[in-house]
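Chapter review: from sequence to fold.
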Amino acid sequence: MAQLINDAAESTEIKSNDDQNEKILFGASKLASLPTRSSTRMVQNVLLIWLDKNINLGKSKDNRNTMMSLRGVVNTIETFTNGDECVEFIKTIQNNDKICIIVSGSYGETIVPRIHSMPQVDSIFVFCNNKSFHEGWARNWKKINGVFTKIERICEALKRATQQCEHNAVSISLLAADDGAANKKLDKLECSFMYTLILKEILLTINFEEKHVKNFIHTCRKDYDGNDRELKNIKNFEQDYRKKTPIWWYTLECFMYAKLDRALRLMDVDDIIDMGFFINDLHRQIAELNQKQFRAIQDCKMLTLYRGQGISIAEFEKMKKAQGGLLSFNSFLSTSRNRSAGLEFSVKNLRNPDLIGILFVMTVIPSQSKTAFADIKDISYVQKEDEVLFSMHTVFRIGNIKPLDDEQRLFEVDLLLTADNDKDFRALTARLRQEIAPVREGWERLGFLLLRMGQHDRAEKVYEVLLAQTTNDIEKTSLNVELGNVKHSQGKYDEAIGCFKNALKTYNNAFDPKYTTLSAIHNNMGCVYRKMHKYSHALASYNETLALQRQSLVSNDPALASAHNNIGNVYADMEQYTQALSAHQQALAIRQVALPPTHPDLASTYNNLGNVLYKTNQYHHARVCYDKAVSIAKSSLPSNHPAIETYLKNLYSVSNHS
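The token string follows.
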């Protein structure tokens, strides 16, 4: 079904707010601001920096071998000979990426005090010729992982530090228990919680092909160019992927684990799409094992599992405030049946003063939850402690939080796996599915989600591929509307109009007259024409929308109010204020009957009425409208919602004329 987009008006003094009654809004989502590919392409959660004024890696075979050994542990390496430049570079690292740094003895004493408190810096390795001398000052700095005279020993220590960083990098989302999930506004949720849930559902409905595996391998070869160790692993993956299990590949100490976890942590859409086939395969293997291991065993009543992890002090404070609420691990999650194994991971984090060591104690009742998890001890590449692997987006309820040490640096956190009948979780997931493309499937649903995430270029790519593949006029109509909405969001207005005109052509071939789709096409064309300042075209499109809606809707349907609102905004643009006032009054009359008195759409209507009254110098009446807009918005929207700021600015502007 084609979706409506709402119109908005803006002038230099007074701002109009777009309607909020449509459940799906197109354009850059305010729910998420997601990272894209940077100039330094990182594929792990860890970056290695080497600071040495005498570094010269390209001049000898030994130095080249040194670099290859280091890249076998951390793929992305930056070298510096100047301390100031190194410090400035560290300041640019974001997205909670971690830095391990090798520093020469000559730089160590001066540079470590400058970088030690930076949260990006996880571990420091001092590389020198005089170990006993440098060990003296180094013991005063907790992040120093050791003083070394051989690069081989640094590689060993770096590998351990990197593994700990990758382990800690698993993304966590929190939902406090301050109010019911059924009433929770989506813009109060962490975007990672929403999008990993929907992405997981989408990826499990897509039929991936061998071409998707080949595309992934091609990307990996570019990412790991020059890294002999990982290029060998990639070649093995290409030759043997189907001969091994997804769990085996995920637990192999190679590119796959860190690359996947980083993509899910940052919601890197390019990488997630590239790895979609693997996410699908890995989840399905875990689910199949779950059926064999736990669902078929009637006496499997309860499991207690453990996971040690380091989290920032700020994240720990958020977790304490969310006690009693929900916690989601947004990536695949490794746990153990062995408490001491989990505790060991927790204690390792105490050397870093930026982190709190957490021992998660997880209670799982298999009979009460469809969550996919499996014992992989005999399947994993590394058959280590009794490991249990959960699929991505596993949700727990947060229980007791208690300290395990006197310094308040090590804590035990009780988690209970949410049951299928958990009221809050069921209500929340139902809301999310309803809000985000409920009628779409597969790649089309993914395109819609990308648009909601503000990933317009990627959504455009998805829809263009789908359009090229289909010969069905019904599908062409829907996809042309979606692609037109993407082009609108990108500011490609002529191309957007072209898409909507194509949708009208295929609509006439495929459909009986049906207002819902046809009126949406005309409405969306009106929005684009207005952006192009082609007001007569916009007005014609909106009037066609209204005429079609009147054929099928009752007189107080909120959709009619949206049409009147959009018509009113165009008349205001044309400075035909009498017609604009009439249209907004009709929108208000419908919404006063159809909506609750504190509905945010009423605030939008009062604001738009105030704009017209302001333009016609009716300042007292304009102020009354702006007052109502502010009052309603404050009672129905989050305190940081941009609409509130808009209404307050408009109220301030009219106050100057009182």
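Two observations follow directly from the output. Residues 454-655 form a domain with the Serine Threonine Protein Phosphatase 5, Tetratricopeptide repeat fold (CATH 1.25.40.10). The chain is about 55% helix and 15% strand.
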